[in-house]
Design a protein that fits this description.
Elements lengths: L1 H51 L3 H38 L1 H9 L4 H25 L6 H6 L6 H17 L6 H26 L7 H7 L5 H55 L10
Helix pairs in contact: 2-4, 2-7, 3-4, 4-6, 6-7, 6-9, 7-8
Length: 283
């Protein structure tokens, strides 16, 4: 018993010593951290000030890199758009060929797959072309970069073609298909002509065309076209919003009418099937 008491006392003493060592170590770490912060405070402030102090040469290089990178990106996108315009025209005008090819299929599943792939790729190319062309509505880019002077109008024509596809069935309606075709042709011409004969024209012999068809060299024409296109873009977007909201309201109204008619029918059936009292059961 005496040995057990001694061992318990020894363990308690060891535990107290361990706790005291932990407290001493933590207090030392806190004091060291405070001292380091006091010493490093002025040095950290000086390093921060040195980091934010950028000389004019470095700042000019950074600004030049940023503006040059953005200009390269926009000009590259503008150079890609002729390929997308031509591809959109090819896919749209190849519809009669695809219809004739599908009619030769003996398997309905294969014909459906071909048609779905064609519709998805055709509409995706048109949407991608419009999405890339959105930067033509940025006034600073139109005024500062050599872009086609009528590029915003070409984007509006493409937007109207997409609007017809949204509001009407251009695959089954011949009139809607013709309208989409005309809008795509006018839009592609409006973009390709100033791009090929203005922006990408040779330096010799085409000075007048380059200055007239480039947005940065002819702001007297490019900026009014841009502002007119912005107005048309806003009006078209407002009409699309109205069309979609009206469709949603009609769908919800039809759903509410259907539910009300179903409720009335159910109540009528319940009233018709309710048991009525016989002549002998009345009293």
């Amino acid at each position: 018993m005496r040995g057990m008491k001694m061992s318990r006392t020894f363990r308690r003493a060891l535990a107290l010593v361990f706790v005291a060592l932990l407290l001493a170590a933590s207090a030392g770490a806190v004091s060291a951290a405070e001292g380091h912060a006091e010493v490093a405070g002025p040095m950290a402030a000086e390093a921060m000030a040195h980091t934010h102090a950028v000389d004019e040469t470095t700042e000019g290089l950074i600004d030049g890199l940023m503006s040059g990178g953005f200009a390269f990106l926009y000009i590259t996108l503008a150079a890609m758009l002729p390929l997308l315009w031509v591809l959109a025209l090819i896919l749209h005008l190849s519809r009669p060929y695809l219809v004739r090819t599908i009619r030769k299929f003996t398997l309905r599943f294969g014909a459906d797959v071909w048609w779905l792939l064609y519709v998805m790729i055709r509409d995706a190319v048109m949407i991608l072309t419009f999405a890339i062309s959105v930067f033509f509505f940025f006034p600073d880019r139109v005024a500062g970069l050599p872009l086609p002077v009528t590029a915003p109008l070409a984007t509006i024509f493409l937007f109207w073609a997409l609007l017809i596809k949204l509001t009407r069935d251009a695959d089954d309606d011949a009139g809607a298909y013709r309208k989409v075709t005309y809008l795509l042709l006018v839009g592609a011409t409006t973009y390709l002509v100033p791009f090929l004969f203005g922006v990408e024209a040779s330096m010799e012999g085409w000075e007048a065309a380059r200055s007239a068809m480039s947005s940065s060299q002819n702001p007297a024409l490019s900026m009014p076209i841009l502002y007119l296109s912005l107005v048309l873009l806003g009006a078209t977007g407002a009409y699309i919003f109205y069309f979609v909201a009206r469709g949603v309201a009609r769908a919800s109204g039809r759903g509410g009418t259907t539910s009300r008619l179903a409720g009335r029918r159910e109540r009528a059936l319940r009233h018709h099937e309710a048991p009525t009292a016989g002549p002998g059961e009345a009293g």
